[in-house]
Amino acid sequence: MLDTKTSKEDKNEQKKKKKRRTKGEGTIYQRKQDGLFVGQAVVGYDSITGKLKRKTVYGKSRSEVATKLRKIGVLVEEGRFVETNMTVEQWLEIWMKDYAIITLRPRTYESYDMFIRLHINPYIGKVKLKDLTTNRIQKLYNYASRSGRHDGKGGLAPRSVERIHTVLHRALEQAVAERRIPFNPAHATVLPIRQNQKEVRALTREEQDRFEAELDNFRLGTAFYIGLYAGLRRGEVLGLKWSDIDFEKKTISVERAVLRVKDKETQKSELRIEPVKTKKSVRIVPAPDEVFIRLKEHKTRQAAEILKAGPMYQKNDLIFCTTLGTMIEPRNYNRDFSKIIKNAGIDNFNLHGLRHTYTTRLSELGIDPKIRQELLGHTQVKTTEGYNHVLWDIMVIAASRLNDYVQERKNPSIKEG
């Protein structure tokens, strides 16, 4: 009798064990209508509603559902579980409006928006964020590199593909931070190698002579002269104010730039004065005497324009502006440049080439690459009490040598003597 009773108890215990759920299995039941097994697992807590968040899974057998729930349980414990039906396009819209808008400069924001609209959304925009894979992104980059141009003339330059990657990678990093996805699938992609890039060339000395000879025929000739002998970018030149010029110390402070940007809210394009490209671009540039001689002449001409315009003139302190004191449209500045090089008979040369000519002349005069970088604003020069006076002295020497170069070209007898 004792053996029989013990046997029954063992069987009952075994039945109880079969019914008992294993750890991480969650709640599992079988639906009567279709026979499918259904399981639920707690995956988090909704701080807004105060309720637990659950994930439901389905399977043809109890063991299949139990396996799915255990996998979810592991991800939840490791903090890697994500659940979203949001598409890539929807997330990029949120990221641009809530994050990029407060971290990017207007021109950068505008370029990000362009890359998303033209190159990312058409290819992967409808893909669910949680389903986006490294290979899918790689195919996007490959397509952009091969056939990404909208004029049908082939692929985008490697630099443009890199920018697409920058936009997508940054947006996905934020998605990871918010646990919308477990990892950044753009991280392991491979970008195209930059090959056969068109180099910006410098003017030869003979071409530079012809270029400078044309400047007196243009109202903004001094602006181009500053680009040539101080290495300023177009926007930096157009953003200069008279308060940035120290005629006594013969220096130019670079702090802002005139840019045409699209307003983030209205999406309308407008001219703005913005901080310079990066913090590293804020700098003080010593320049040759001739730059300041031309600036004084320009100021005299501007005074006559102010008198002529009368109350219609807008006093913005801008050095290079319209006859009414308003900002110069960058495209109009480009048009003047095109006329100058055409009149001077110079081919295959663009506006950025003025900066390249500037650093090339400095190199020819024996100026160290580090100093050239400082003058161009590629590295930061601090103007506080901790300013490196030795570095500054060398920069002044660079301007002095450039000044000697200018004087020798104006009066060849100086060099001969």
Describe the structure.
- This protein is mainly α and 417 residues long.
- The protein contains 15 helices and 8 strands.
- The termini are far apart.
Which whole number gives the mean pLDDT?
A: 85
Biggest sheet descriptor: 3 strands, antiparallel
Radius of gyration: 33 Å
**Beta-strand segment tally:** 8
| Beta-strand fraction estimate | 5-15%
The helix content is: 40-55%
Distance between the termini: 131 Å
The secondary-structure class comes to: mainly alpha
Shape: elongated
Trace the largest sheet across and list its strands: 1-2-3
Number of helices: 15
H-E order: HEEEHHHHHHHHEEEEEHHHHHH
Low-pLDDT stretches are 379-387
What topology emerges from the helices and strands here?
Layout: H1 2-19, E1 27-30, E2 37-45, E3 52-59, H2 62-77, H3 88-103, H4 106-124, H5 134-147, H6 158-177, H7 205-215, H8 221-230, H9 234-238, E4 245-246, E5 251-254, E6 256-262, E7 269-275, E8 283-286, H10 289-309, H11 330-343, H12 353-364, H13 369-376, H14 389-410, H15 413-416
Antiparallel strand pairs: 1-2, 2-3, 4-5, 5-8, 6-7
Helix pairs in contact: 3-4, 3-6, 4-5, 4-6, 8-10, 8-12, 13-14
